[in-house]
Amino acid sequence: MKKIFFGLLLMSLSQSSLCSYDKNLTLNFLDKLHDTVNRHPKDMATFERFVDELRRYKIVFVPGWFGGLGKLVFERNFREQTHWLKSKLHFIPGEDYAIAPINTFSSTKKNALTLKKFIEASNRQVIIITHSKGGIDTIEALVAYPELQKKVRGIITFQTPFKGTPIADRFNARLFTKIIAGSSLPIINVSPEERTEFIDNNKEALRALLEKIPMINLVGWLEDTPLANQIAEYTFCGNDKDKIDDGLSAIFPPQSIARRQLNGRFFSGIIKTIALMLASHGYALNDFIIPKESQRLLNAHYVELPGIDHFSLIMTSYHNHVDKIRTTIYLLQILLEIRDQSNENQWK
Length: 348
Prior knowledge:
Blueprint (H helix, E strand, L loop, with lengths): L1 H13 L11 H12 L6 H11 L3 E5 L16 H9 L9 E3 L8 H13 L5 E6 L1 H12 L7 E7 L14 H9 L3 H4 L3 H10 L1 H10 L2 E7 L4 H10 L26 H9 L1 H9 L20 E6 L17 H14 L11
Parallel strand pairs: 1-2, 1-3, 3-4, 4-5, 5-6
Helix pairs in contact: 2-14, 5-6
């Protein structure tokens, strides 16, 4: 474990970034894994306080591309997280958590309006967990409707293409999108050109948003290096020997290979072609869909997790067996721990 933290520290210090080192919360994330890996007993009272605070908010999941098609194409997005909330914490669907009713193939402008109405209807503040284009839809909603920001306690984004993805301009993606969605706007919305224009035109609004609302960008990519393999050993639960009992086994059931669904494995497997294309165009580090450098928004907090593909955290993956529950819960814990001194009273 010491090797992991030392190696990761070197990686963090050596990388070039747009924001200061304290925005990198990767060590905070791995520190929470440290207790798990070394079988340290969890402080149940601390965990219960976390759950009590979590109950103050409604958790809204915002899916990305194909997220609304469910088992018609592959398994429902965020299936494990929502099952955990319902079965282990006894959260009530629709009241304590919900999947945002966006159209997976709609434009960001249309989905932003849908999110506005959905969040406004909540009787309490919300914590938003997004994946891929769902993060774009969320940010556009909060910029277009700034009055909505007071209803948002925090945001976690899983591999969102804030700076776009080159595949929007490849593989006849626009024609394909027009055929299945009736419009090419959804794929144009995640093109590097449009995302760069959006950030440039709204930079001040985005910085103000990030000062007001805590946000964590989960940055993921597939990389076969000793460091990535070491981190993966303690982050993923793909083998019987890796099943971890951290003292909260009733709350954190171990992953099992048997739970993987064939359709999820197939879908995440075929996108390897896209990864090879991205690599050939200079994006060596990518999650098979989004380049690593595209997944961070300005000066937002971030956690880096090498060894995952674009679907690892929201559905079954062919490439690994990431513990979606632990990863999500640790990010939620860190999110609630973030306290900007100038805005501390806002969240009380």
